[in-house]
Amino acid sequence: MRYLPLTPADRSSMLETVGASSVDELFCDVPEAARLSGPIAGLPMHASEMAVERHLGKLAAKNLDAGSAPFFLGAGAYRHHVPASVDHLIQRGEFLTAYTPYQPEIAQGTLQVLFEFQTQVARMFGTDIANASMYDGSTACWEAILMAARVTRKGKAVLSGGLHPHYGEVVRTMAKFTKDEIVSLTPEMSAQTDDAAVIAAIDETTSSVVVQYPDIMGRIPDLEAIAQAAHAAKALLIVVVTEPVALGLLEAPGHLGADVVVGEGQSLGVGLQFGGPYLGLFGCREKFVRQMPGRLCGETVDAEGKRGFVLTLSTREQHIRREKATSNICTNSGLCALAFSIHMSLLGGEGLEQLAAINHDRTQALVERLTQIPGVSLLSDAYFNEVTLVLPRDAREVVRELADKGILGGVSLGRLFPEQADLHNGLLVTATETVTLEDIEEFAAGLAAVLEGEAA
Amino acid sequence: MSVYYSEDHEWIEVEGDLGTVGITDYAQGQLGDITFVDLPEEGATVAKGDSIAVVDSVKAASDVYTPVSGEIAETNDALADEPELVNSDPEVGGWLFRVKLADASELEELMDEAAYKKFVAGL
Amino acid sequence: MSGVNTAGWRPSMNEVAPGDMAPATQSGDRALMLEEALIFELGCEGQTGVDIEAPSKAVSPALSKFRRKAAPALPGLSEPEAVRHYTRLSRQNYGIDLGPFPLGSCTMKHNPRLNEKMARLPGFADVHPLQPQKTVEGALEVIEQLADWLMKLTGMASVAMSPKAGAHGELCGLLCIRAALDARGESREIVLVPESAHGTNPATAAFAGFKVQAIPATPEGRVDLEALKEKLGPDVAGVMITNPNTCGLFEPDLKEIADAVHEVGGYVYCDGANFNAIVGRVRPGDLGVDAMHINLHKTFSTPHGGGGPGAGPVVLSEALAPYAPLPFVTRGEDGEVHLVEEENRGEGHERAFGRMVAFHGQMGMFTRALAYILSHGADGLKQVSEDAVLNANYILRSLEDVLEAPFGKSGPCMHEALFSDAGLPEGISTLDIAKGLIDEGFHPMTVYFPLVVKGAMLIEPTETESKQGLDRFIASMRNLAQRAQEQDESLHTAPHFAPRRRLDETRAARKPVLVWKGDEAA
Q1: pTM for this entry
Q2: Which of C45, C51, C52, C218 should one mutate to test binding to chain A, selecting the residue with the greatest count of A CBs within 10 A?
Q3: What number does CATH give the domain C115-370?
Q4: ipTM exceeding 0.85?
């Protein structure tokens, strides 16, 4: 077996050293009845590299990948061009096959990257500090709500209807068990975000207010007004960013009064990967540092006075604080944070701005073209790279019919909000820099045909 | 004015109905370099034995239990910037909080200095 | 030792002659020992390493009130600068690719590159989680095939694939238990956790709203069965047992524990972090387990990546299977793979306890793990656990005469060999041995864990170390033990040859500096 270096001769000489006559003796603590004598029945035996490639290659070929079709999906996962050097660098064995940097003397590479990553995220979000990553945007969102409850010593979170419904589902699932109170506002097919409803839902018992920016329908809430209302009630404003590229164009939430900014970092460096692994981002005010979840990397010096980095404030974490830890998270998204950080280093602030500009530009072109189709209208004209189009019929069917034509034409609101019939004609479409004008034409022609087919 | 000690290595110095609480020199020695002290809120009502403060070192977070019941009158603000006072001056400048005693008879269950020394020697 | 480097090759280690002291260099670098500044100190704002097309139109006026006043103050690096920065940084890291990484309970085994190649196939890497199902059938098939293997390898009825890592999987398992109790109309509050457990166990139980009670260990390093039985009652929701446990020993009483827990209406959670010791050879389902997470980044070789990502699918017994969270992938009676989400949960998965993540879980890890499993097959996986256990026992027996092995007398270990500082002379600590190992060119073992053994050193070689590699490691460990006995002062200040000496963690924690502020006015 190509991954197992022991030879039969090694095994027998080692058994001799160990003083066992067979390897079975080493399993003597396992009850006899539970010890299997041979390989588990009904499963295939080992396979060559070639055979495995063939098997998985066939499965991969059954999927329609985003690069092979006009592609307009977003809703929390975005397709951006990732520079070739990113994937090359994250495959350096010293990054790829390293463990969590608990031995800082031989992990300065990972640690310095984390310190740079934390700084990049904080500057992008406009927060004082950021942590070394969470699993994904949805779990970062829940962790932020828990942190706000610890900080404010209250336990009610108000969720805007513009929050990604899967994030809302994660929060409501967790809250069922922790007994935190969650007030979820109902999303509406409206040009306006639900700022007023969010503000109206805040009271003295509110610990946090959760608002997505831009929201799930591509609209942009007025964070300053919500921050003011939240702070008046001694609640924290948590802003969720599922498309960080937007922050090349939109003001950083931290500059608009957000106390905690969390997000999905997948857009930069990570790729679609059918939903994971992704990268949870978590930034906040410095005064909450000892209540933060997850790992933190900090600067210090070594015994010779040289600058170096270590994981710090570990007493918040599960391996020390056990049941009193701020979170149970251990393994995070380290390698995705590295990919994000490399992509961000290549872009720089200016590059992020340019990337945002071309995303917005493409989306303007998409909107312009699609709204020429009879029956298709735009929900809100304040958008970044994602908009909701209102169609004359249930967008779920439209999406499936477009797929039949080889077009990946967005995400239907019906899939995201199955229980809300009033949203079912909504189609969420995104155009990033990877979309060409030809893609847009093909999409427009396909959509027109699908909708006409219905009229006919 | 007198000083009492608990088996959890807190000391309390009592003057009138006000007790000043900290951790003992022995305790700080066991914990190593203190990096952060989480203090209770002033005005909070606490019951003897409650865990109301946490003393952090690099690799451990240790609960501090109040040796008496009462109301938190004051906390040591200096520790926010200089947690190392708990190491360098544990029984004077490194005090943690002052508590207004609810029941002075609780002090009787604590040790005096001699008894505490004997207790530590037996550890 | 026999077998070490039979050719006798050794790097030349000549003493530096007195007049031949190394000079200080102007750059601070020392030949291949390269220092590297932060990106903020390297780059200049205004540069970028990505060529981006200029927009054809102005930004929509509707956006003007939301515009950022200034671009984030972040440096941009040209591609050559970026490649150098990260390559130089990478060289300050140790990785499995460089040598043994014997971290107990972390299973740092070789990461096959085929897995990386497979995960990067566009059909897996470049598909969106919300594409119409008929365009992602191959991806769903990967999830289902991996799920099927995991169920068969563990002898369990079902598996929740979406948890993102081990601790997330623990949470998933406990939430399934909570949901099952809710369905019975019971609100049991207590979860029993052995003292020797990973920190994530009590943290997770608390996170899931349970109260944690500790179970003591026996002097033989096992769960104290009698103590556990005494705590069982109508308030107990379940137990969390690690098997093999964190001392590297199999819990022979697990079945009896499970029966006792089931008898009082509780459930058994098994921490699967140490599954590598038994994969392909023992099925936890045969031992009465109700839920167990599987760290794909341990047993199934997906790379740790300097701290993540992982993946923590949770296998479930019949009793807990109905509560697995959404989304859920299943193979129907029609032989087709189906995806169950909120929209269609009525189709046989209406009791799902909710949702734990935005999308389907760690697809990139699923592909890698499936490639690993297919490569090994049932026979190869059995060989994996056998070699992992043999390697650990070989280390245990090759070092127990120079280091105290607290449970060495009670029989063989599983895939980890546990030592303690008990035999070290006064003044030499476990940490000193670990740091000395760095100078020897190895990653240290896990230290000071499990907490139930003072000064613990937990060594997990894994099956991907050759005998020659183990012999080199053993030779270095024996040398360190000898230096310890000789009270070699230089151990206190080790490592001497790493990119950094020991770091001041107290300073880092007292006044945390978590972001670079070098460009802010003083």
Answers
A1: 0.96
A2: C52
A3: 3.40.640.10
A4: yes
